[in-house]
Amino acid sequence: MPLLVAGLDILSGSDVRNIVMALGQPYSDLLEKGVSRVHVDEIMGVDRLLERLKDVGEVTTYTKDGRKRRYAVYRHRGPKP
User: What is the pTM of this model?
Assistant: First the structure.
């Protein structure tokens, strides 16, 4: 994750999405439309990744749960019918 974090700001939104998909679950779940909440472990740099995903419109908000050392990440719910 530290190598990814170093270049996050210069990557396009498409590049960030491709990298997140390549990381696999639970990170790839952050891009799945209709998944309203995803939990990711609190590891170095994940907050910057979440902020970048927020910038490109994939994440709406996230909150840190210090007791469980993870983030609860809230996504867009997808297109309305």
Answer: 0.84
